[in-house]
Every structure is written in C-alpha cells, then in structure tokens.
C-alpha cells in the first residue's frame, strides 16, 4: 500500500527534491564517514575516530600530517570500496530523465549520483574527486593531488592543495546551502533517504519544506519521522527501484 501511495505521489508531482545521506552510498558498499565504525574512524591509525584527525581544527594545526594521512589512508579506503551506483542512484537518475526530479541534495562525497547519470546535484559536503588550493582557490583534480611525490602545491601561488570536502567543524558553503533551501521550499514532493538527520545544518533543510508530501526512507528512526506523510523503514534502493 505504501509503495502504491509513493507511486501516486510521484505521478502527481513534477518538482521532486531528494535529500540523501550516507545510507544511499552504503548500499554500494561504501562505508559511511561519521559513525563510530565508519570510514573516518577506520582510517585513523590510532582508531581515535573522526573527532581526532578529521577536524578542521586538526587540519589548521597539522596541515601536512592531515594531507598525508588523507592521501595515504582515506583515498585508498575509498578506492578499495565498491564504487558503482546502486538501485537508489539509478532510480533517481531515471526520475530526473522523466522530468520529475529537479535536484538531488546530497551529503555524500563519492560522486555516485553523477556516475548513475544524474545531472542536477548539490554536494553540500563536497566531493573526493575534487581538490583546490587553500590560498587562491584554484581548482585541481584528485589525480593532481595524488601524483605529487609528497604534498601537492598550487602551480599559481604555491599554496597547499587540499581535498574539496567539508571537515568536521568546518563551515558549509553558504551559497550552496541557500540554493538547497530554495529548492526544498519550492518542492511539491520532498523525499529524504538514507540519513538519520542528525548532522546540522544539513538536517535543518527539512524545516524549509512547505508542502504536504514529505517522504522519509531510512532503516532507523529519525526525529523528523512524526512529520512524514509517508514513512519507510527499509532499504532506500529497494523502495525507490519499486516505483520506477
């Protein structure tokens, strides 16, 4: 019954916004970043978790150590993961092709939505596929960062090249957040999936939704469940693939 209701909601909508978190990518075999058993914690040599090395404060105080650790551990872990789109990524790409889905707002940094074929994406936590100079903001590819014999330096100003991901304690891009808020506030159907909605300010996007078609798909409880018009405690890939 719930699947049929979701199908009906999608058929009646032409301005769908999807907001997704780590649960979208874990179904592709990519570990999440922020849990105690996630990628941040597992890639820490001292097993001290994300609040140790993957903070913006640590980066500012230990720049070379951070960048070398990221290069030698984080990227290798990601490369060893299964980096193929799953049923959720594919279903969302299909909804975009049909003119239903207007934007994906994602907390993930793996680029799997693009790989599935989706064009319109806001990556509010950045992407592991990009880097930039911390001083002059010149953009660089991940390959440029990885090919450096030690630490990559900017060809223009000599500044350190850093990954284009948002670290713990680092401020999100205001313009991206504002763009995301505008999409959410104008959506006729808002689908939230694969996120426990505890990481702010991203989780606060739900407060901007003005409609009456809020769908939450997550295996565990979220504090916004009571506001959902339709709720699924199931695999996001399973749910979304069943409505395409």
Describe this structure as you would to a colleague.
This protein is an alpha/beta fold and about 240 residues long. It folds into two domains: about 1-30 and about 85-125 and about 170-240, 3-Layer(aba) Sandwich (Rossmann fold), CATH 3.40.50.1220; about 40-80 and about 130-165, SIR2/SIRT2 'Small Domain' (2-Layer Sandwich), CATH 3.30.1600.10. Helices cover about 35% and strands about 15% of the residues. Strands 3-2-1-7-8-9 form a six-stranded parallel beta sheet, with helices on both faces. A three-stranded antiparallel beta sheet has the order 5-4-6. β2, α7 (about 110-115) and β3 form a beta-alpha-beta unit.
Describe the structure in brief.
The protein is of the alpha/beta class and 244 residues long. Helix content is 34%, strand content 17%.
Which regions contain 5 or more consecutive residues with pLDDT less than 50? Answer: 40-51
Biggest sheet layout? 6 strands, parallel
**Compute the gyration radius: what is it?**
18 Å
Distance between the termini: 16 Å
Into which percent range does the helicity of residues fall? Answer: 25-40%
User: What's the CATH topology label of the largest domain?
Assistant: Rossmann fold
Helix segment tally: 10
**Structural class label:** alpha/beta
**Number of separate strands:** 9
Can you give the mean pLDDT? Answer: 89
* Number of domains as seen in the coordinates: 2
The general outline is elongated
Give the CATH H-level superfamily of the largest domain. Answer: TPP-binding domain
Strand order of the largest sheet: 3-2-1-7-8-9
Strand content: 15-25%
Q: Give the CATH level 1 class of the largest domain.
A: Alpha Beta
Q: CATH architecture of the largest domain, please?
A: 3-Layer(aba) Sandwich
| Helix-strand topology string | HEHHHHHEHEEEHEHEEEH
């Amino acid at each position: 019954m719930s699947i049929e209701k979701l199908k009906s909601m999608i058929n009646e909508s032409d301005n769908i916004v999807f907001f997704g978190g780590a649960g979208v990518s874990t179904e592709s075999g990519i570990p999440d970043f922020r849990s105690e058993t996630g990628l941040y914690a597992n890639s820490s040599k001292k097993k001290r978790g994300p609040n140790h090395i993957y903070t913006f404060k640590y980066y500012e105080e230990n720049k070379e150590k951070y960048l070398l650790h990221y290069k030698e551990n984080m990227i290798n872990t990601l490369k060893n993961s299964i980096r193929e789109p799953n049923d959720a990524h594919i279903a969302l790409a299909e909804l975009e092709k049909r003119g239903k889905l207007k934007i994906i707002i994602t907390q993930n940094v793996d680029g799997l939505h693009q790989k599935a074929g989706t064009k319109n994406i806001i990556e509010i936590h950045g992407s592991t596929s990009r880097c930039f100079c911390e001083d002059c903001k010149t953009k660089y590819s991940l390959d440029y960062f990885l090919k450096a014999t030690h630490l990559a330096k900017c060809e223009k100003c000599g500044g350190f090249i850093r990954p284009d991901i948002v670290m713990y304690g680092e401020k999100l891009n205001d313009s991206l957040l504002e763009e995301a808020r505008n999409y959410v506030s104008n959506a006729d159907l808002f689908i939230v999936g694969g996120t426990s909605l505890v990481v702010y300010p991203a989780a606060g996007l739900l407060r901007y939704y003005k409609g009456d078609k809020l769908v939450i798909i997550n295996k565990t409880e979220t504090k916004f469940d009571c506001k959902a018009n339709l709720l699924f405690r199931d695999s996001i890939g399973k749910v979304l693939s069943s409505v395409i």
